[in-house]
Amino acid sequence: MVDIPLDLQGLPLAEPIDYTWQLTRRPVDYALRGMPPLADRIGAAVARFQYILSGLPDVIIGKHIFETYPALMLDLMGLPLSRYKGQPIIFSEGKWQGGLLAELATQLNFVAEDNTQLNDDEFDAILCALAGVADPEDRLEGDLLRKIINQQLREKLPDCQHEYDPPAGYCVMRKRPSEKTVICKTNDLSTLDQIDH
């Protein structure tokens, strides 16, 4: 599960081109307020990832590697998705401390050992991993994602005549985890056996 566009769906020369946004965004990005894959903030990372993927079989996307989007997941779960960047948090005395990011970690039922610290990038990585293990009923992907993309596009663009498919391997979690997620930061994987499930 990676937080980077994988299937560019023909960008920058996607067909047909009816709107200027189609030069930098896929239908899923426009419909669900995703960052343009060719934008300056993520374009370099997208280009590097495309280079890595170019040496791999096409079938790997959606089978072994999936695209996900933490901001969309927070939005789908009804959680605030802005102003948590740059806020490190710490788990202390049984709760997360440190601003909005701490509130998000609490609402998502994340727990950890005392003095465990997380930054916003680690938080996003945890969300990505959770999307990969979430119950299929708790994910937005495939036909349901296609339906939502096209509904949103018709609302935003009443003259839209096309039906669009989601990118291959695009998957987001749409419901909050019901179970606790134990955050364990270690380089020693043997400590994972000691976690009380």
Give the SSE map:
Elements (H helix, E strand, L loop, with lengths): L26 H5 L11 H12 L15 H7 L12 E4 L2 E3 L2 H8 L2 E3 L3 E3 L1 H14 L5 E2 L1 H15 L15 E2 L7 E3 L14
Question: What does it look like?
Answer:
The protein has helices spanning 27-31, 43-54, 70-76, 100-107, 120-133, 142-156; strands spanning 89-92, 95-97, 110-112, 116-118, 139-140, 172-173, 181-183. The strands form three sheets. Strands 2-1-4 form a three-stranded antiparallel beta sheet. A two-stranded parallel ribbon has the order 3-7. The chain has one domain (20-185). The chain is an alpha+beta fold.
Strand residues, percent: 5-15%
Rg (CA only)? 18 Å
- Termini separation comes to 23 Å
Runs in which pLDDT lies below 50 for 5 or more consecutive residues are none
- Count of β-strands: 7
Main β-sheet, spatial strand arrangement: 2-1-4
**Class by helix and strand content?**
alpha+beta
**Number of DSSP helices?**
6
Main sheet: strands, sense, barrel? 3 strands, antiparallel
How much helix, percentage-wise, in residues?
25-40%
* Inertia-based shape: globular
Can you give the mean pLDDT?
A: 89
Number of domains: 1
Element order: H for helix, E for strand? HHHEEHEEHEHEE
Quick gist of this model?
It is built from six helices and seven strands.
Defining key terms:
197 residues; alpha+beta; two-stranded parallel sheet; 6 helices; 7 strands; 31% helix; globular
